[in-house]
Amino acid sequence: MKKGLLLIVIFLTLGLLLHTLPSVGQESEEEAEYPTYPIIFTKPLKAVLFEHKVHVEEAGLSCEDCHEDIFPMEAGATQENKDFNMQALYNGKYCGACHDGETAFASNTRCATCHIGVMGWKRLTGKEKGEKEE
Amino acid sequence: MFKEFAKWLKTLKNEGVDHISVEERRAFLKMGLVITGVYAGGSLLSVVSRVKEVYADIPDYVGHYPYKPHYTMVLRVDRCIDCERCMEACRKTNHVPPYGWRTRILEQHLPKGDHQWERRFMPILCNHCNEPPCVRACPTKATFKDKVTGIVRVNIKKCIGCKACVAACPYDMRYFNEEKRAIDKCDFCWESRLSKGIFPTACAQACPAGVRIFGDLSDPQSRVYQMVHDPQRALWVLRPETGARPNVFYTIH
């Protein structure tokens, strides 16, 4: 009887340990893969949202597909370029490398998919929270 | 029996949609259908639904323009990205205080099915209605419809600040300006630009995406006339049920 109880206790402790340990490992692994925070471009206008998650998990891209030929690793660095605009995209630069209507939806369609506007920017950055009326 | 019919249907040749009149196309568009093929000498039509994409309720008053120039704005909403440069330009040009507004952007989440949605921004401004409820509501005739241009304006000397027009406006496009001690609203930049011969409005000038097309609807050569009268174009106005007959039109593409 006592043996049984002891076995149950051992099982429980082992189970608890094994349950928590690998999940910790998984999380850190995921974190290392790509940034989970949103990349928000605010130049030349507010604002464009880029999410690594969508591009990695849904589009199946790897880091090397964009970095560092099309975009440098530093988040938001590209917006300092003078030609970071829609015309450049139509010419196949930046996002336009894939968003050409064949690889991914064309840059001159579905504008508000990436453009989140001043409203979206305020929502994400928590600016003027008290002033905002919803 | 149906198999035979299906076989027969498949043998038919698409005679092309070129011979369908624009009126007929527009009639189908109003039902949310786009004609994609013509068969058996025009007795059979192939149509696809565009109800989700098109809400083609073309106002019946299109074609009657009592003003000259009949100022109007056509908004290509799917191009709006809420950069709010129009709002900034408007504030600067017309000295709109932080608590007020002459134009705004709304955000919509259009359902795409499958629990997904698509974002759409919608700029709104005074619709400069042909039958403006605000003008009817004003007890002092401070707000009036300009007899020449059709622009709904405010005579701030006559305004007593009762805000009856604010309550009457179907588009919430009026606010009380503390500095002027009067109601302020969009006047298509009449005072700041148009009356000085500067064209177009500040918002239309500032828009980087070409959303706001401003012009004279009574001029067949103008871009707005051609857009409003394009039978292929889905065109609608906001809150048509109020009977205000707005002069701000919405479209996509």
Short description:
The complex is a heterodimer of chains A (134) and B (253). Chain A is built from six helices and two strands; from the N terminus they run αββααααα.
Structural commentary:
- The complex is a heterodimer of chains A (134) and B (253).
- Chain A is mainly α and 134 residues long.
- Chain A is built from 6 helices and 2 strands.
- The radius of gyration of chain A is 22 Å and the shape is elongated.
- Chain B is of the alpha+beta class and 253 residues long.
- Chain B has helices spanning 2-11, 22-30, 85-94, 133-137, 164-168, 202-206, 223-228; strands at 33-39, 44-49, 71-76, 103-113, 116-125, 143-145, 152-154, 174-177, 182-185, 212-216, 235-236, 248-251.
- The model of chain B has no long low-confidence stretch (mean pLDDT 89).
- The chains are: A mainly alpha (134), B alpha+beta (253).
- Chain A binds chain B through residues 45-46, 110-113, 115-120, and chain B through 78-85, 105, 107, 118-121, 208-209.
| Relative strand content of chain B | 25-35%
Largest sheet properties of chain A: 2 strands, antiparallel
Mean pLDDT across residues of chain A: 82
Strand order of the largest sheet of chain A: 1-2
Largest sheet: number of strands, sense, barrel closure of chain B? 4 strands, mixed
CATH superfamily of the largest domain in chain A: Cytochrome C3
**Beta-sheet strand percentage of chain A?**
under 5%
Share of helix among residues of chain A? 40-55%
Give the C-alpha Rg of chain A.
Answer: 22 Å
Beta strands of chain A, count:
2
Q: Percent helix among the residues of chain B? A: 10-25%
Number of helices of chain B: 7
> Assembly state here?
heterodimer
Count of runs of 4 or more consecutive helical residues of chain A: 6
Q: How many extended strands of chain B?
A: 12
Distance between the termini of chain B: 43 Å
| pLDDT averaged over residues of chain B | 89
Domain count of chain B: 2
List low-confidence stretches of chain B.
none
Structural category of chain A: mainly alpha
- CATH architecture assignment of the largest domain in chain A: Alpha-Beta Complex
